[in-house]
Design a protein that fits this description.
Number of helices: 13
CATH topology of the domain at 6-201 and 340-347: Spore Coat Polysaccharide Biosynthesis Protein SpsA, Chain A
Distance between the termini: 32 Å
Order of helices and strands: HEHEHEEHEHHEHHEHHHHH
Largest sheet: 5 strands, mixed
Helix content: 40-55%
């Protein structure tokens, strides 16, 4: 996936043409699916394709983010007889045996996550590195979810009954939810030897843009699949408010008589410590997923997760009214795009009278 990231695309392709144990054009091909870039992305891709003809640059048939692009890529893979898709972004820098390690995973795996290694580039990397690697950080989560920019999927089994909603972002999150809700027997695996280096926003302006587009994608995808709101909204809002809720409960105990006063004190303390406990888990497991990992990241992770929760609330309140007026339009759009690529609408969209 690429849009207006010519230099990132160059770095990604340079690491793909140097793959060991699974040579480009002999073992795998590359499709650069582009969102109508205005920079030199096409020229860079075509420069590589002169030496490696299996690298193809293609502008998306339906623009509008990664959701429609994923559906197009799946259709492309099916029509051209590919067994696997390895999803990636043009910001990725691949380890020398990334593709070979992905393909060495057990044959019964339908979806395989690689190991994300986040580059340490700014304080914002310290605060948000976990976002690209929480499938590895949270114990066992990789058995239920795989990140959209670092995974292998077996085409015939992973996309038999569920697809990505054609939202601008958060499509992989909702693919996971659809798999769970449909009760599909999709086996997820983790391949820690397949390492890809990724980046986080480097400035506060970039963080705000990322968070805003993330929430827009979540709301859009929620409407497409028939939800009233993103399922992770309330947990993140509660998380962001724990510094207020916890102390407020403890203060309220002053107006109660013992032993009843112990109840709000206990729950207030428990709530107050939730961000610290969660951030400590991330920091303790961060060495394998972040170049600057270790317990020193704890205060940064604490600040980052709280800010993540606050921005989730802020941008949800900003965008919910806009999207509330587009429910029928977005659901029709979902069905139209899914059908355009030759799939059944119910694989990714809400089916109702609207």
């Amino acid at each position: 996936m690429n849009k207006d990231n010519a230099e990132g695309l160059r770095r990604a392709l340079e690491t793909l043409i140097k793959q060991e144990g699974c040579r480009i054009c002999d073992c795998f091909d590359v499709l650069v699916l582009d969102g109508a870039s205005t920079d030199d992305s096409e020229e860079i891709a075509e420069g590589f394709s002169k030496e490696f003809p299996c690298i193809r640059f293609k502008v998306q048939e339906i623009l509008g983010g990664v959701g429609p692009a994923r559906l197009e890529a799946i259709r492309y893979a099916m029509d051209n007889g590919y067994e696997y898709i390895i999803w990636g972004d043009s910001e990725n820098v691949y380890s020398p045996r990334y593709v070979a390690e992905m393909l060495s995973s057990p044959s019964d795996c339908d979806i395989v996550s690689g190991r994300s290694l986040v580059a340490r580039e700014s304080v914002w990397s310290d605060m948000f590195f976990w976002y690209h690697a929480y499938h590895e950080i949270v114990p066992g989560l990789y058995k239920r979810h795989s990140p959209g920019n670092n995974k292998l999927a077996r085409v015939t089994t992973a996309y038999r009954e569920a697809l990505y909603p054609p939202s601008k972002r958060s499509d992989d999150f909702y693919y996971t939810l659809l798999v769970l809700r449909k009760g599909l027997k999709i086996k997820y695996c983790l391949q820690p030897r397949a390492v890809v280096k990724v980046s986080m926003p480097r400035t506060y302006k970039e963080v705000k843009g990322w968070q805003s587009s993330r929430i827009k994608g979540l709301i859009e995808a929620a409407i497409m699949v028939g939800d009233k709101r993103p399922p992770d909204l309330l947990p993140w809002v509660f998380y962001s408010l724990t510094p207020v809720i916890g102390p407020s409960l403890m203060v309220s105990s002053f107006s109660l008589m013992p032993p009843i006063s112990f109840i709000p004190i206990f729950f207030g303390l428990l709530i107050s410590l939730t961000p610290v406990a969660f951030s400590s888990l991330i920091a303790a497991r961060s060495r394998n997923v972040y170049e600057g990992g270790g317990l020193r990241t704890l205060p940064y992770v604490l600040a980052g997760t709280l800010l993540h929760g606050f921005m989730t609330l802020r941008y949800y309140l900003k965008w919910r009214v806009t999207f509330k007026e587009k429910v029928k339009e977005l659901r029709r759009k979902c069905r139209k795009i899914v059908e355009y690529f030759g799939f059944k609408p119910e694989m990714a969209c809400a089916i109702d009278s609207s």
